[in-house]
Design a protein that fits this description.
Blueprint lengths: L13 E10 L4 E9 L6 E5 L4 H12 L3 E6 L2 H13 L4 E5 L5 H15 L4 E4 L14 H29 L2 E6 L13 H21 L4 E8 L5 H4 L4 H10 L8 H12 L10 E4 L6
Parallel strand pairs: 3-4, 3-6, 4-5, 6-7, 7-8, 8-9
Antiparallel strand pairs: 1-2
Helix pairs in contact: 1-8, 3-4, 4-5
The structure holds nicotinamide-adenine-dinucleotide.
Length: about 280
């Protein structure tokens, strides 16, 4: 117990308590109370974690105590994120990988399993958006969008699934989109097709994985305030979209990270194989 004369601000978590540690700056003994996150001892892998929703999801999981691996093609940027998170005492590491490349994904997973021993949580966020109209769409662009958004999600799941199955524990969240439930607002037919594919993959693996303690769900964001959106359309067009949503604004990366957290936590223990629409009521 913390002594009566010591003030405690808030204890909502299971905590590690170190009593009577000398603080030279304060010149007195202090009690260090460190919240133990619910994912303490778990390893989380988040793709597309150098920016946007992947970064926010990685930060959220690391704050809950998961040893979190940030995977991205932009290694420098992912390393900068790790350094920023480390300043807040969060345990993260960054690894470069193009998720559409089978050899790179295999090497990535071997490296993580070699260093950390297991993977408990996988968040497949890496994705690309292309707005090309259908009658201008090349086969090469179709292949690229499908290979990052769908093949990348498949490869990450396929390489990590055996470790989860063996350990009878796994939480997977894939990034689909409202484009995976209806038709994309900003992306072309290839983007919509890739996100529908992610939904199919999510449902099929959820069914196969359930007996082995593996839950697989998807998030289906509407328009979220990230570089992907800001880089695709003008501020005026963004305002027009915002005004058309029942909740008249863009979503935030933190709101999506909260949903990812819910889907990997035990609060969603009876939920698998769903795509959760997070779009401010856009599809109503
Ligand atoms: N922003 C939105 O409004 C929105 C809406 C619905 C769905 N999504 C989906 O959510 C996910 C994240 O979107 P965001 O807006 O945060 O995107 P973003 O462009 O800000 O970030 C995507 C990240 O993925 C990484 N990436 C791209 N290709 C990769 C590859 N081949 N291998 C590894 N990493 C790669 C990028 O470097 C980047 O860091 C995507 O799958 C996107 O399709 C976004």
């Amino acid at each position: 117990m913390v002594p009566r004369d010591k003030r405690v601000l808030a204890v909502n978590f299971i905590c590690d308590i170190q009593p009577g540690v000398r603080d030279e700056r304060l010149q007195e003994d202090v009690w260090i109370v460190t919240p133990k996150g619910e994912f303490e001892g778990k390893v989380a892998v988040v793709t597309g974690a150098a920016q946007g929703m992947g970064r926010a999801a990685a930060e959220r999981l690391a704050k809950q105590g998961a040893e979190t691996v940030l995977v991205d093609i932009q290694l420098d940027r992912a390393l900068t994120v790790c350094a920023e998170l480390a300043r807040n005492g969060l345990k993260t590491r960054a690894l470069a990988c193009d998720v559409s490349d089978e050899n790179q994904v295999r090497k990535l997973v071997e490296t993580i399993l070699g260093e950390l021993g297991h993977i408990d949580i996988l968040v497949n966020c890496a994705g690309i958006l292309r707005p090309t109209p259908f009658d201008e769409l090349s086969t090469a662009e179709w292949d690229r969008v499908m290979s990052v958004n769908l093949r990348g999600t498949f490869l990450m799941m396929r390489m990590i699934y055996p470790n989860m199955k063996e350990r009878r524990y796994g939480r997977i969240v894939n990034f689909s989109s409202t484009a995976g439930l209806t038709v994309s607002t900003l992306g072309g037919a290839h983007y919509t097709a890739s996100k529908h594919g992610v939904m199919g993959l999510t449902k099929a693996v959820a069914k196969e994985g359930a007996p082995f303690g593996i839950r697989v769900n998807a998030v289906c964001p509407g328009l979220i305030d990230t570089e992907m959106v800001q880089g695709s359309i003008s501020p005026e067009r963004i305002r027009r979209y915002e005004n058309s949503f029942p909740i008249a604004r863009l979503g935030t990366v933190e709101e999506v990270a909260d949903l990812v957290y819910f889907l990997v936590s035990d609060r969603s223990a009876y939920i698998t194989g769903v795509g959760v629409n997070i779009s401010g009521g856009d599809l109503l």
